[in-house]
Write a structure and sequence with these properties.
The protein is built from 3 helices and 11 strands; from the N terminus they run αββββββββαββαβ. It is of the alpha+beta class. The chain is elongated and about 65 Å long. The N and C termini lie far apart (about 50 Å). Bound molecules: zinc ion (ZN).
């Protein structure tokens, strides 16, 4: 059973004492994840166990026991994400472009980066940040990026070229083409 009450997901999870305990929780999480609809990650507190274990399954199933983000890029990317605890809700979040994670059950450091051509890399990178957030009682709503409504200054001419960005892609367009995109909130004027 996946917990959907937000208040129950706001609790800071405790470290597990042994790898064995972590692996048992990891196995339950992977089972629950397999039975879910389109789930790619799950944290222990989402099934009512307030311990620091989460799983992600984008390229391969990974159990992370007592995971810690030890390095994070300052730069972020925008990601549209959902959560098994909040069915049919999606939020645009800001996530670090890369994070380095240490756990108790994987040797050395694990690097997750969205800085690649493969969509799976971005999914995995956002997913690991989303799941570790859960263990800290943080949900995707706490990471939501709200695009600032943009008021066009009157001085921009209709045929003047402007640069806009959606956080990933940058376009140069005439203002008459760019204006509806900027007003939709999905694109912003690029700061150069
Ligand atoms: Zn979630």
């Amino acid at each position: 059973m996946i917990i959907t009450e937000e208040t129950k997901l706001k609790i800071l999870c405790e470290e597990v004492k042994t790898i064995k305990e972590g692996e048992e929780i990891g196995a339950q999480l992977l089972k629950e994840l397999t039975e879910s609809e389109n789930g790619i990650g799950l944290a222990a507190n989402q099934i009512g166990i307030n311990k620091r274990v989460c799983v992600i399954n984008v390229k391969e199933p990974l159990v992370l026991i007592n995971p810690r983000i030890v390095e994070r890029s300052e730069e972020q990317f925008m990601f549209s994400e959902g959560c098994l605890s909040f069915p049919k809700k999606y939020v645009r979040t800001g996530r670090h472009i890369s994070v380095t994670v240490e756990t108790d059950n994987h040797e050395g450091k694990m690097v997750f980066t969205s800085d690649s051509d493969k969509v799976d890399d971005a999914f995995e990178c956002a997913c690991v940040q989303h799941e570790i957030d859960h263990l800290d009682g943080i949900t995707m709503f706490d990471r939501a990026v709200v695009a600032q409504p943009y008021k066009a200054p009157e001085k921009i001419g209709r045929n003047e070229r402007v640069t806009i960005t959606d956080g990933k892609e940058t376009k140069e367009l005439k203002w008459k083409k760019a204006q509806p995109l900027v007003e939709s909130g999905d694109w912003e004027m690029a700061t150069i």
